[in-house]
Amino acid sequence: MSKQPQKSGNNAIESRYDDYLMPIWKELDVPLRRGEGCTVEDFDGNEYLDVFSGISVTNAGHHNDAIVEAAKDQLDELLHSCSYVHPNEPAAKLGERIAEISPGNLQKSFFCNSGTEAIEGAIKLARKHTGSKEVIALEMGFHGRTLGSLALTGNKAYKKDMAPTINDVAHTAPPYAYRCQTCDGECTAACADDLERVIGTHTSGDLAAVVVEPVMGEAGIVVPPKEWLQAVAEITRDHGALLIADEVQTGYGRTGSMFASEQFDVEPDIMAQAKGIANGLPLGAFTAPAEIADSFESGDHLSTFGGNPVACAAALATIDELEGGLVDNAREQGEWLSTALWELEEEFDVVGDTRGLGLMHGVEMVDPSETGPMGEAPAPDATLAKHVSKHLREQGIVVGVGGYHGNVMRVQPPLAIEREQLERAVEGLRTAIEAEA
Ligand SMILES: Cc1ncc(COP(=O)(O)O)c(C=O)c1O
What we know:
The protein is an alpha/beta fold. Helix content is 38%, strand content 17%. It is built from 13 helices and 16 strands. The strands form 3 sheets. It has a 7-stranded mixed sheet with strand order 4-10-9-8-7-5-6, sandwiched between helices. Strands 11, 12, 13, 15 and 16 form a 5-stranded antiparallel sheet that branches. Strands 1-2-3-14 form a 4-stranded mixed sheet. A hairpin with a 2-residue loop joins strand 1 and strand 2. Helix 3 packs antiparallel against helix 11 and helix 4 packs parallel to helix 11. The protein starts with 8 loop residues before the first helix and ends with a helix. The mean pLDDT is 95. Pyridoxal-5'-phosphate binds next to helix 5.
């Protein structure tokens, strides 16, 4: 047998991925060996400023001492209990803590392991509580990759040939002001009238729930006007249905408040959470007021790993860290970031729109020589977005790329980011746009 040369560093990881992991994501990003605060390091010793947080997860920063210690202490005590058979203390305390920090009367939680499971469970609960079946979600919205949440996801790019045909799911227009097909670019409560139209035309009126992301993440950081979300909540309830807020990405401080719904003065009937909840340990949850949660009877739902004591202990420490100043920092830095990105929009005609809340911002790259496909806004330029992202990597900065058209730079750093680091990220963007446009 001929000897293969030994690979090392990043190459070794990537070639094992090629050989032994399913080819889900062909454009792999930098492999990560370790992280500290807002800095990550690869296997070749290169350091990067992390402005994406592993898709908006490490809100309290990489290797946050308090969270790591809490998880280690719990590992020494009890690693697993199956919390729906043998109650464990961290799950009990976390349920109480989530009730304290959640908007409105949200009180009782169910723990699972991911965002998609939180959505699936929330839908089951809404169906059980209302006795109705149909669910409406937003076009371009994203709710996960398992079959139920994939059916709700309003983007064919995620569905390909694998999404189920579920007659109980319909979609309504998103509040995407920059490319809105309902209004002239100033989405208002009136754009929410589309929900009435969809209920009237695509459902049989047997509506269990309407699911919305208060700020749409994968769609390209789409921030609705407050009145729009409030109007959606009102229409939903007028039809006897529940409003499910998918706070998987917006929750746990990301938008500058613990949950984004608070900033819209909307109290969801069920709230789905995951991502930042335990700063990277796998955990998801959905939470509802007692009168809704208590519709579940024993055996209606379960998860072997849900409520894992180590993940719950990490979540308790994460909430302490977030309340200890990180949410405030997200709000303050986010205000600065908003202005800094808006200046890029003024400076470059390839920057069509910038928008966001807290430390969840999007920069939409466009080709100003063309318009459409939706409305009169300049055409999305996904190729430019990719080039800008590559240029940023070369400068040692990791920024996400996403959006319905694949043309949105996603600025979602750990919430502990300092002004100097944020300035470096924005300057990096400026340099990359100058070089690539
Ligand atoms: C809003 C939203 N909901 C649900 C999900 C699915 O979460 P997970 O990947 O943990 O299943 C995501 C993931 O990006 C998300 O952004």
